[in-house]
Design goal:
Largest sheet of chain B: 7 strands, antiparallel
CATH class of chain A: Alpha Beta
Shape of chain A: globular
Radius of gyration of chain A: 15 Å
Number of helices of chain B: 11
Order of helices and strands of chain A: HEHEHEEEEEE
Number of domains of chain A: 1
CATH architecture of chain A: Roll
Number of strands of chain A: 8
Distance between the termini of chain A: 30 Å
Largest interface: A-B, 35 and 38 residues
Oligomer: heterodimer
Strand content of chain A: 35-45%
CATH architecture of the largest domain in chain B: Alpha-Beta Complex
Radius of gyration of chain B: 24 Å
Helix content of chain A: 10-25%
Number of helices of chain A: 3
Helix content of chain B: 10-25%
CATH superfamily of the largest domain in chain B: Naphthalene 1,2-dioxygenase Alpha Subunit, Chain A, domain 1
Structural class of chain B: alpha+beta
CATH class of the largest domain in chain B: Alpha Beta
Strand order of the largest sheet of chain B: 12-18-17-16-15-14-13
Amino acid sequence: MDKIALRHGVAELLAAYAECIDDDRLEEWPDFFVEDSRYLITSRYNYEAGYRHGVVYAASRGMLRDRVLALRRANIFEPHRYRHIVGTTRIGKIENGIAEARSPVIVVRIMHDGEMSLFAAGRYLDRIQVDAEPYRFVERLVILDSDKIDTLLVIPL
Amino acid sequence: MSEHMAEPVRRVAWPSNGLSEVPFRLYTDPEQYRLEQERIFKGPTWSYLCLAAEIPNPGDWVATTIGEVAVVVARATDGAVNAFVNRCAHRGNLLCLERNGNGKEITCIYHGWTYDLAGKLTGVAFERGVKRQGGMPPEFRKDEHDLPRLRVAELAGLVFGSFSREGPDLETYLGPEIVGGIKRVLNRPVHILGRSTQVLPNNWKLYFENTKDTYHASILHTFLTTFRINRLSMPGGIHIDESGGHHFSQAKLDYAAEDADYRNASLRSDTDMRLADPSIIESIDEYGDQVSVQILTIFPGMVLQQIRNAIAVRAIRPKGLDKTELEWIHLGFDGDDEAMTERRLRQGNLVGAAGYISMEDGCVGGFVQRALQYNDADSGIVMMGGYDAQSQPFRSSEAAIRGFWKKYRALMGE
């Protein structure tokens, strides 16, 4: 596989994902995943201890659609947005059309009144389907450096 | 003038001797917060420390807190669980710096004083000096400087500690009904599925009251009604112990009927909102009593939760007047097969900082705290379901909140 094209495709996927969330186009967010996908938000502590629990634990794209629907229609919270800053991605092994990638990320939370705070720091551990266009996540693990979450987590990371 | 001297001013005045009007200043007054540390957390109460499963082996220890006081829980070589303050007798340094560990003894990093796993002072570096110079005076006796110990009790795999020598034993403190409620859920050995901490921008009491508030559940948390889940819910009730401080509420569910109903409705093309993947609520009646929700609270700061098959301990840790850390410990049972573990993990989406039916509790206390900022001269109203703190066979009630204030006022001497 053409390494430059692959790197470009992965970078495009990661950037488009962050932009989608930060622009509040959350209805499009599940489309970044394949149907049979996994999405998990957990902490380094849980991950290193082998604990499987995640504050968000999705085992299908349907669960991601449900997250968005619940956020729009059911859950109550103060309006806010994120700004994702995704650092340089390292691509690991590529097998059977799936590439592994690791990227550091920080997320700033901007409340409706302008109050800003560093909401999350951590890394994405991704498995990305790269043998078909567009590239999609087979698995996205969000491993947060801290196991403290301020107030609540409703918008996906 | 002398009248003022004779009658000390009570900082927070209750409007009556009842439990149904709660002064807002209880959440905003720094002196009240300081007194709570003394009279409640260090008073004749039992606080959750850790799971026995976290310290299975001799030498295992966990650093935790009671109120804001740093405490160590350790399993000694004889297998006994001890708890003592996490503060070196010498200069007051924090002894255990990490959240857990294992060792034959505990050594202070500052000057190397050592303690055994019962908090007994065993070694003082250079006690006899260096080259016969310096050293401790001959009158200094190590056995007079053990770490202050807590009383420790274990129930159903939960370890509790108390600073009070005089207070009742744990089971008397809880009462038989609450003990029964704990043993119902924790009826076999547990293991940890994961943990997280939610930082709440509010006074600790606002969260603890929230967990006792059976009135708000279907109003603030609209996930279940929005997605038409739990329509077949059957009546439950509230059980409150004699002191008022502890409670559990239960709701029952016809699990099989719900499952069939949800499946059938998913096939219809009606306009109802439906989950694309309802596996997050797919549950089994693991206790065989149709109780689908049991929320149990232990004064002053623990919750044991069974929401369907999502089992968790929540520890409420005050971190200042208007900041609280809520520690979630998600549990599975030894003997769970892979399908059961996966079920618990999926249902984990319902609870915690991102929980479909719990995330609102993370922000609502902060909204109250903000509203009370320099606007706290009045009292809140807690009259739903009457004026007392008795058990009730329905849940549209604030009886368990009144129970909290009953216990609180008794301990605070108010």
